[in-house]
Amino acid sequence: MHPARLFIVCGLPGSGKTTRALELTERFGALRMSVDDWMEQLGVDIWDERSRARIERIQRDLTADLLRVGASVVVEWGTWARSERDELLAIARGAGAFAHLELLDPPLDVLWDRVRHRGREQIAGSRAIRRADLEEWATVIDRPSAEEFAAYDPCPPIGAGDRPGSPAYPYGSWRPDHVPCPDGRHSCRRP
After folding, report:
1. What is the pLDDT of residues 36-62, one digit of tens each?
2. Has residue 65 got a pLDDT over 60?
3. Summary mean pLDDT of the chain
4. 31: which strand partners?
5. pLDDT average, residue stretch 142-158
6. What is the largest distance, in Å, between two alpha-carbon atoms of the chain?
7. For a tag site, which of 4, 43, 55, 150 has the least CB within 10 Å?
8. CB 58: neighbour CB atoms within 10 A?
9. How many structural domains are present in the chain?
10. Does residue 183 belong to any structural domain of this protein?
11. Which residue blocks in 43-127 are alpha helix, DSSP H?
12. How many beta carbons lie within 10 A of that of residue 130, not counting itself?
């Protein structure tokens, strides 16, 4: 059995969080925490901030429980605020789990193109994301600094942590718009 890991996937809508989270769940046998998915399944408008906050709290508590029993978890809420990421890091450390942080930060034009084509928010919400929303959110997101990345664990070496029979994750083959930290790799230390 591989050690418990918390993967925090940070980014704006359209940055590739869900795609990356699904890759991580497959590679590490992790459970994925997606507030948007839960809201959609419950029939709650994804623009309902009160419900979003309640579901995030439930998922945060569930993440803590899962890490304590040795399960790996991928959080893909976006985690725009450092305080959110710090809280998740503390949960992982308290459970004795590894913690990994990824920032997916493609240019605004890429975000806008992806969001327009997927249309998820219009299907599961009362309206679509507008370009003006992305422009505003791009100024609000607290992108992790090199100092923050240094608090997290490095990626496991190729092949380590994969489920038996799964191919190793190709850590060196990321697209340039999906580099998780300034030096092009995960960073941090073991708990």
Report:
1. 999 989 999 888 999 999 999 999 999
2. yes
3. 80
4. 73
5. 83
6. 46
7. 43
8. 13
9. 1
10. no
11. 49-68, 82-94, 108-118, 120-124
12. 13
CATH number at residue 115: 3.40.50.300
What domain range includes position 74?
Answer: 5-178
Q: Residue 91 has what DSSP assignment? A: H
pLDDT value of residue 171:
32
Q: List, in order, residues 6 or more apart from 157 with CB less than 8 Å away.
A: none
Residue 53 burial by Cβ neighbours in a 10 Å radius (0-12, 13-18, 19+): exposed
* Residue 189 included in any domain: no
Flag whether the pTM goes above 0.90: no
Nearest Cα residue to 102 out of 176, 5, 10, 39: 10
| Domain-located, residue 185 | no
In 10 A of CB 113, how many CB atoms? Answer: 13
What is the Cβ-side half-sphere exposure of residue 103, based on CA atoms within 13 angstroms?
A: 22
Instruction: Please write the tens of the pLDDT for every residue from 9-32.
Output: 999 999 999 999 999 998 889 999
